[in-house]
Amino acid sequence: MIYEILLPIPINKTFYYEGAKFNNEHKDLSKGSLVEVEFKKKMIVGVVVHSKKSTTFRKPLKQINKVLNPFFFNGEIMESINFISQYSCNKPSMILKMFLSNFPTKESKTLLGKNEIIKKIKEKKLKLNSDQDKVVGKLDAISFKNFNVILLEGVTGSGKTRVYLHKVREVINKGYQCLILVPEIILTTQWVKDIKNDFDIEPTVYHSSIKKKEREEIWKKINLNQEKLIIGTRSALFLPFSKLGLIVIDEEHDSSYKQEEKLIINARDFSIVRAKNASCLVILSSATPSLESSHNTMLKKYKHFKLHKRVNNVQLPNFKIIDMKKENCIISNELTNSIKRNIDSNHQTLIFINKRGYSSFIICKKCGFSKVCEKCNTSLALHNHSKNKGYLLCHHCNYREVFKNSCQSCDHENTYIFPGLGIEKIAEEIAYKFPLAKKCILSSDIINSSSKFQKIVSDIVSNKVNIIIGTQLISKGHNFPSLKTVGIINIDNLMNGFDFRSYEKTFQQIVQVGGRAGRKNLQGEVFIQTLQPNHPVMKLCTEKNNSYFVDWELISRKENNQPPYSNYTSLIFSSKNEKLVINFSSKIYDQVNEQFKNLEIFGPAPAILYKKNSFFRYKILIKMNKNLILQKRVKNFFINIKCPSNLKLYIDVDPINFV
Q1: Are residues 322 and 337 in contact, defined by beta-carbon separation less than 8 angstroms?
Q2: Fewest C-beta in 10 Å: which of 11, 159, 607, 615?
Q3: Peptide bond into 644 cis (omega under 30)
Q4: Chain centroid offset of residue 200 CA
Q5: Burial degree of 279 (CB within 10 A; 0-12, 13-18, 19+)
Q6: pLDDT tens for residues 640-651?
Q7: DSSP codes joined into one string, 626-654
């Protein structure tokens, strides 16, 4: 028998091998069988995609070296690899590489032949409010053995996790597997403990930072259906589930589900593909769903379940807009007074700013010189300035240098000023205004380990902290019982971005961060500091009703024929040879323009981040109407673009980031 085998190598083709005639285990291998073969004098694991009794080759074929029983990729995995490769313009071999990235390097005798372990989970009687009880009833009526997408939308603090975990328990008790995806694993430690306590479910946490040996062990157990519940980041989506019954995407709107390096894929969308091919249920959970998901509920593609009330009927916080044109300091007078009241009454305040470091750029007030990264055409951000151990950091390539307050252009000393607002400058201002208050900073630059993060979160929950100063790390998934006030600073920076999703991201950010306030018998308050107090987005944030924003934003998207009413695809050309990037992107533009007359093509033009890590970058942005036949033709053209060896082409379908 001759076998067509897909190998995890960067070549867009399959290879043929002959089954070993002397070994019975090579007879009639089915599609999805994992095998070890020799390729360019190396042993490599591949998957059988087709078989035939004979074929005409001039040269004799190599034989399969080993069949890797009992491991196997079922039809769902094989179909999902094919579909997502076509949709996202990635080679099937590179998607296979992700699925095989943690294939066990050593055989484990203890696992062989011990397929499918089923441990029944006892049902704990958990108190549900009327909203939760109603949605749980709706979920109970839906079979997880049929493909359905459910958008579970609930206000912050409404107990969405408790609702979907009822379905998780049902699926596991029937012997099926569940995957819960989360945006950031650092946020899950307390959450996992709550799942164990409330549901008596023992989940396995999976992400790229755990040890290789542990990842391999999980891979084996998942493929043999010996592991029932995985909680992980987007990399967990590439685990080889053999009996998938449910996928949950927690915080489904979160942009971190989009993988933007090497293999460009949206994990949320790939989850739906996997669920469809597995004929199982997928639940998208969020307090602020993406416009795409909300639109799909309007088209009746997704079912829409809503939780309108917080747990224990706690009221949503009151939102107040602060006009910063009337203020002359970073922290407004009204927010300052609220912080004072909170300290006196032993309540907490969260100050949110989504900018790392002390200042996003520095500039000489004598000559106007600004420090820019030599490898990237972007300003260097100042970090650690308050501690007199300042350094300049590029947030794109991580280049770092010691900060010296001496202008290299005009040779003047102490002339640099720091106009950009970062979390460290906010912390400095808070320390000046409230020197006796207990403060903590939650930023990825400072919190570099899960244990450190959990220690700070524990202190906040125990009310050992008066003022929390945080970036996006603090904006979701936390329940701080003593947190009364949230102050949102410099949100105009996000709202006035160049991205057509800027308004959506701003609305989601404000609602998510504001939702941390007033969780336990406290009337929360949220202060939004802005220079645009009359902007519609600011007004809509105060309405406490997502549907108002969704309706308003969809009207604008439809008028401008933007997603979800059309599709964008971004072609990013990258090379250290600037002239090559310019010429080759122009050549591709001419070819696309000639072959497809009805496309809107923008570019070629320098990327917003023109130089990144010493590579010059040009972009072509293509807008397509919702025409599946046209999209397939265009994508086939993109996949077959042959690039020079010293140039890389990245194809980003449905881009989230336009930098």
Answers
A1: no
A2: 11
A3: no
A4: 28
A5: middle
A6: 999 999 999 999
A7: S-HHHHHHHHHHHHTPPPPTT-EEEEEES
